[in-house]
């Protein structure tokens, strides 16, 4: 067993630590406060730079998405950078930076991009305008000033002359249509109509 002198020494050490440790902790906290960056109250709560009055005057949605299935089983998805509700006197909602993808049951895929698009008043179709480009899984890339797509069935038609580049060469035509084969046939057809001209370009 420890003698009285040892017990007294231990007691004095414990008493000293009871005073020294809190003082050390207080000193550390004081140093942390001194070396930390001061907080600017004006910068404590950042706010998004949004013009509320402008949003009230011109309501719009950012990155909207539409997804659905046509009656023939094709999957249709349309996205846009920005969409606005129909303005007074306009015929339907409008969108900018539009992309669409149509995947038919037979596995064919059609991708379409356009600068702008407008929904019909009844919501049955979308009209794409401004550097419209359609890429079909058959290998054809079709460009036009305008195209229209039904939302209830697979039916994409151009509203202006088209230029198509593909495996057979370059095709120019007054119109183009992507739809079901019809008449008891299965599958889907990409058809060019009106003053069709093919410039054959043999494979290199």
Automatic annotation (TrEMBL):
What InterPro entries does the annotation carry? LipoPS_assembly_LptC-rel (IPR010664), LptC (IPR026265)
Which is a Pfam family this sequence falls into?
A: LptC
- Tell me yes or no: is Heme among this UniProt entry's keywords: no
Q: Which UniProt keywords apply?
A: Membrane, Transmembrane, Transmembrane helix
Which organism's genome codes for this protein?
A: Paragemmobacter ruber
Q: Does the keyword rRNA-binding apply?
A: no
- The record lists the membrane-crossing segments as 13-35
Q: What is this protein called?
A: LPS export ABC transporter periplasmic protein LptC
Cited Gene3D superfamilies = Lipopolysaccharide (LPS) transport protein A like domain
Q: Where does the record locate the signal sequence feature? A: none
Q: Which gene encodes it?
A: lptC
